[in-house]
Amino acid sequence: MAFSGFICRIGKLSSMVEKTTAVELRTSPHIRSAPSVDQIMRNVIYALLPVCAFAVYQFGISVLALILVTTLACVLTEHMFCWFSRIPTTIGDNSAAVTGVLLGLTLPPGFPLWMAIVAGFIGIALAKVMFGGIGFNVFNPALVGRAFVQAAFPVAITTWTPAFAPGRFTEFIPSTWTIPFAAPVSVTEWVEGISFSTQGTLGIDGFTGATPLALQKFQQITTDVGSMFLGISAGSAGETSALLIFLCGMYLVFRKMMDWRIPVAVLLGAFVTAGVFFLSDGEHYPDPFFVLFSGGLMLGAVFMATDMVASPVTPWGVWSYGILIGFVTVIIRLFGGLSEGVMYAILLGNAASPLIEAVTQPRVYGTGREQQKKAES
């Protein structure tokens, strides 16, 4: 009897040892703080570097100069306002640099540099500094800067450059160095220098510089979806390769620096809305995949609609916010006077973000209308 009890205790002890060895041990610290603003912004810059590199490969040194100028304009503007306000400079958090890079990627490759400086100044001054700095801005600063030049310089903002043009690594696009307030240099003169054989290899999109959205909307010419997905088409500096932007977005999701639900909701809203119109009249409306991979929808969904300050944080709010942006984008593209509507859709989503967050705020357990009525009575 005693022997059997001893054996039983040995069995229990061995089971306890087995359970103990299954415990996972890790070195300290066991509690980690959330990533800082500087860490988040640096990771966003890392994610944008491949997009910038492909833009330079596609359009040449003019895009490199454009991105550098917009970045410097945003950083210096923020530093200048901090100096005037006699507060420590905030350029160390890299948020101004992110704004500058994003702004440069939303502009045409041959956009005049002095206009790019104006866009950077307006974006930081009006959309960020005047609201109290980072964490208080209502709208995405890069899109505010682009919206200003869209209204102030409509010809320059809609002048496109051929992709993969020869000489793009040795010569600047003439309009890049336009004198302030002077008549812009026509890109057509630069394109006419391309040989006839090269024009044939570039195709209609490359030679005319027209974007796939403009060709589809105004000339009923549909660009191959595969070309847009890979980035073999004209457009703004960073709005062409949907595949590359998607991969860069996956990096941010993997690093937990971006809420994946927002870009998914934006693309889902655009896809469903475009699908409804395409099924109703496929001859006049583009197919949903064309809508997803054309223009700045992918860039806006991944890098701009996900602005942590200007977007909701509630679970239902992020889905409503993203679907609204996708829906408005398609409506503007199909029925608006412009071929692109991502910028206005995101700015509208930013404006509606506080209301969306208030409406979709989860109810705290133990509270509600009945409890509120009892408290009032």
Notable traits:
377 residues; mainly alpha; 18 helices; 63% helix; 0% strand
Description:
The chain is 63% helix and 0% strand. The protein has 377 residues and is mostly helical. It has one domain (37-359).
Summarize the structure.
With 377 residues, the chain is mainly alpha-helical. The chain has helices at residues 2-21, 37-59, 61-85, 95-106, 113-127, 141-152, 154-157, 187-191, 196-208, 212-219, 225-230, 242-254, 261-280, 288-293, 297-304, 315-335, 342-359, 369-376.
How would you summarize the topology of this molecule?
Layout (H helix, E strand, L loop, with lengths): L1 H20 L15 H23 L1 H25 L9 H12 L6 H15 L13 H12 L1 H4 L29 H5 L4 H13 L3 H8 L5 H6 L11 H13 L6 H20 L7 H6 L3 H8 L10 H21 L6 H18 L9 H8 L1
Helix pairs in contact: 2-3, 2-4, 2-12, 3-4, 3-5, 4-5, 4-6, 5-6, 6-17, 12-15, 13-15, 13-16, 16-17
Measured as a percent range, the helix fraction is 55-70%
- Strand content of the residues, in percent? under 5%
Q: Which ranges are low-confidence, i.e. pLDDT below 50, for 5 or more consecutive residues?
A: 193-208
Count all strands and give the number.
0
How would you sum up the global shape? globular
Number of domains: 1
Structure classification: mainly alpha
Please compute the radius of gyration using only Cα atoms.
26 Å
Task: Please give the alpha-carbon distance between the first and last residues.
Answer: 70 Å
Mean pLDDT: 83
What's the story with the biggest beta sheet?
none
Order of helices and strands: HHHHHHHHHHHHHHHHHH
Count of discrete alpha- or pi-helical segments spanning 4 or more residues: 18
Pfam families: NQR2_RnfD_RnfE
EC number: 7.-.-.-
Function: Part of a membrane-bound complex that couples electron transfer with translocation of ions across the membrane.
Cofactor: FMN
